[in-house]
Task: structure prediction
Amino acid sequence: MLSGKLTSIRPLEEQDLDFLYKWYNDYDFGYWVCGNWPLATFMRRDAFEQKFFEEDEHRYAILNAQNKVIGSIGFDQVNIPARSARIFIGIGAKDCWGKGYGSEALTLFINYLFRQWNFRRLTAETWVKNTRAIACYQKVGFTIEGKLREAYYIEGNYYDAIILGLLKRDFAGYRPNSS
Result:
C-alpha cells in the first residue's frame, strides 16, 4: 500500500466496484471525467466489472485516512521500449473534491510508477473545460504538451483534448529510494 497524509492507494478489489459503478452513473463525475453521462449504465454490470480488471489496464483504489474508498487511479497504454504509460485518476467522493486528495494521490502514484515500474514518461489527457484536472496535473509537475482538436463531443459541442506529459527527471516528488 502507498500511503500519504490524506490518502493511501491499494490494488482495486471487487468490493470497490459498488463505489465505482455509483460514481460512473453520477452526472457530475461523468461530466468531468469525459463529458458523458451516464458512463456505466450503457454497460451491463458484469461488463463494467470486467472493464475494471482488464489485463492491460492497471487500476487502484484511493482511500482517505479513514480507509474509505474515495476514488481510483491507474495507468494503461504501456509502451515498454519507450518506458511510458498513460495515467488517469478520478475522485468520485464529491466531498473530497478540491481538498488536495487528488494531487497527493497523484504524487504517491507517480513516484511509485517512476520508481517501481521504471517509467521515464507519463502522459495524461482530459478535455479543455476540466480545468480542475488540468490544474491538479500541473500542480504535481505535468506540462501541457498539446491538444487534440475537437476530440470530445459533449452536450452538442466539440471540445479539444488537452495532452499533458511528465518526465521522470522533471518530477520534483521523485524519491528513488523510498518504500
